[in-house]
Amino acid sequence: MKRGAGVGRAVVAVAASVGVGVLASGCGGDGAQAVPKVTHRTLTKAELSDAVLSGSVKGFRFLGGAQEPPVAGAGGGTPACGNTGGVLAGRIRPEAEAQLLVTGTDEREPRLVQTGPSHLLVQAHRQATARAVLDTLRTDLKDCAPFTSADHERTKAVRDPAPAELGDGAVAYRLVAGKPGVRPHDTVVVVVRAGSVVMAASGSAVASGRDAVKPVRASLERLVRAQIDRLPKDG
Predict the structure, then answer these.
(1) Does residue 153 contact residue 179 with C-beta atoms inside 8 Å?
(2) pLDDT band (50, 70, 90) for residue 113
(3) Adjacency order of strands within the sheet including 154-160
(4) 68: which DSSP letter?
């Protein structure tokens, strides 16, 4: 299969439904203390479970508890454009040591109009593979040609500026989808590495374009920031 030529059913199932303090880089003066960095060691599944967001985040209403991604490791084809589609299906390269998915809605953002709840995939990696996830994603995005999904929507990946001062590295993009007679809509994706943990937040806007996407992107970044605050720190 050529890169970008198709999309697995698993990706479509998640992408169709999808669709957050700042970690300072640490130099301080005048008595200011550096913010501890998220640990670089690999979290156990139990540690990941303890750290993943729950219903205690102000402004977010979570739908159930954290769970394994329902389509992780399932059949049904290859995610479109490697990690570009794989982050929506829990099928990221390199593979995580453990991963959990939380789903919820942002009740603080009055401009937020989505086709469904937001999703946050949190993965425990070895440090080297956590870095490789973002490197692979950047390459996959660059090489991703427009493709037709299983529900016959023509989809293209559009890379956006990465959020500043969020984790130790980030990639942001949109999957712009549409078909004849149907208004295009965007699935917004923000992928962040903090230490050895990779977080992929996603949510779908009801339309396409900057005005529709901006509040979704802001909500996803708040979700990722809240998750970073919960992760174990070094020192």
Answers:
(1) yes
(2) low
(3) 60-62, 98-106, 118-124, 197-204, 182-194, 169-179, 154-160, 147-148
(4) -
Measure Cα distances from 188 to 18, 64, 65, 175 in Å.
9, 22, 23, 7
The average pLDDT across 53-57 equals 76
Give the span between the Cα atoms of 138 and 153, in whole angstroms. Answer: 23
DSSP state of 232: -
Comparison of pLDDT for 156 and 235, the residue scoring more: 156
Q: What's the pLDDT at 115?
A: 60
- Strands 60-62 and 154-160, bridge-based pairing: unpaired
Per-residue confidence (pLDDT) for residue 35, from 0 to 100:
58
Say if residues 190 and 175 touch (Cβ distance below 8 Å): no
Q: Please say whether the dihedral angle defined by the alpha carbons of residues 41, 46, 47 and 48, taken in this order, is positive or negative.
A: positive
pTM: 0.81
Which residue reads 């990221």 in tokens?
92
- The rounded distance, in Å, linking the Cα atoms of 214 and 212 is 6
Report how far Cα 186 is from the mean position of its chain's Cα atoms. 14
What is the distance between the terminal CA atoms of the chain, rounded to a whole angstrom? Answer: 46
Can you give the pLDDT at residue 215?
A: 86
Q: Name residue, tokens 């005005």.
A: 211
